[in-house]
Design goal:
Helix content: 40-55%
Number of helices: 12
Shape: elongated
CATH topology of the largest domain: Spore Coat Polysaccharide Biosynthesis Protein SpsA, Chain A
Order of helices and strands: EHEHEHEHEHEHHEHHHHHEE
Strand content: 15-25%
Radius of gyration: 26 Å
Distance between the termini: 20 Å
């Protein structure tokens, strides 16, 4: 099978791991008889990680390096790798040797079964209990908000087709949400494969324990996905909540005026609060309609050929000649 696999490894101060990682990736890919390129994205390391990668390149031109002057985060590092990658399939993995290179063929095999993105699911995860507990909660909340069923969305060990990784736009902590972006936003087929998770050999983990920004990114992704194509519909549907609130509070105010007629302070304050609440609901609903309509107008120029093309995986073009029964298949980049 003549294809190229791009292995993208974002690294930050992992100089001690580079040599072993390269050797194991080479052995694994050569044993699988797969053509590959290995792209290190050095995200501002200060321990000689870039120099270690360049030493590997002197003996193997399949190794490449992209270097940041300072640390910009994993999402940006992955986007640099995706932009530079040339492979039909991209594999992403961490550079700390906890992602086991020998598992790459398992991820690629699932791609060969017809899936577009394969997410690694770390079996017997070799991390502290606190980190595993936070990850479990994050996975459950993310699945609840996105409607997906991913057991280990934080795992950085993934394989994906070119049509997937060339469409991704990552920022913030969205590298954690790649399966959601691929599955929810673009409708690609996503699956999970159990992978071995090894003990960290050198240094300590550089990822924060608390991941509130990741949850904020989930909300952002879901909101963008919902409002990208039909913002007016979304805001009108959401305006049902303040409208119902206005109706309930308005009816309560009427009952208060007709059933409980009292000149006391409690009656006066309650009546005022109900009336103000109902008025706020009646004010918020049309404001939401106007926001939705404004977004519809502003986003209309952006919902053109560029976005439509990004949603296409392949296209069968009809021939101009009626007598020619052949067709031309163009795969989206």
């Amino acid at each position: 099978m003549s294809r190229l696999i791009s292995i993208i490894v974002p690294v930050f101060n992992e100089a001690q791991s580079v040599s072993e990682l390269c050797a194991r990736i080479r052995a694994t890919m050569d044993r699988a008889e797969e053509q590959f390129e290995l792209l290190f994205v050095d995200d501002g390391s200060t321990d000689g990680t870039a120099e270690a990668a360049l030493r590997e390149r002197t003996s193997d031109p399949r190794v490449g390096l992209i270097r940041h002057q300072k640390n910009h985060g994993k999402s940006i590092a992955l986007m640099q790798g995706f932009q530079a990658a040339r492979g039909d399939i991209a594999v992403t993995m961490d550079g700390d040797l906890q992602d086991v290179p020998e598992e790459i063929p398992s991820l690629v095999a699932a791609i060969d079964e017809g899936y577009d993105l394969v997410n690694g699911c770390r079996a017997r995860r070799q991390d502290a209990f606190s980190r595993r507990a936070v990850s479990w909660v994050y996975n459950r909340l993310t699945n609840m908000m996105s409607g997906q069923d991913i057991h280990d969305i934080n795992c950085g060990f993934k394989a994906m087709r070119r049509a997937v990784y060339k469409r991704l736009e990552l920022r913030g902590d969205m590298h954690r949400l790649i399966p959601i972006l691929a599955g929810v936003t673009f409708g690609f087929r996503v699956t999970e494969v159990a992978v071995v998770h090894a003990q960290r050999k050198h240094g300590t983990s550089r990822y924060r324990l608390l991941r509130h920004r990741g949850l904020l990114d989930v909300v952002s992704v879901m909101a963008c996905s919902a409002t990208r194509w039909r913002p007016f519909h979304v805001f009108v549907e959401c305006s049902v909540v303040p409208l119902l609130m206005a109706v309930v509070l308005g009816v309560s105010w009427l009952l208060l005026q007709t059933v409980w007629q009292n000149d006391g302070v409690i009656h006066s304050v309650t009546s005022t609060l109900l009336l103000v609440g109902a008025a706020c609901g009646l004010f918020i609903a049309p404001v939401m309609w106007l926001i939705g309509l404004l977004m519809e107008v502003l986003l209309a120029p952006l919902q053109g050929a560029q976005w439509y093309d990004r949603l296409i995986v392949d296209r069968v073009e009809p021939r101009a000649e009626a007598s020619d029964a052949g067709t031309e298949l163009r795969v989206a980049a």
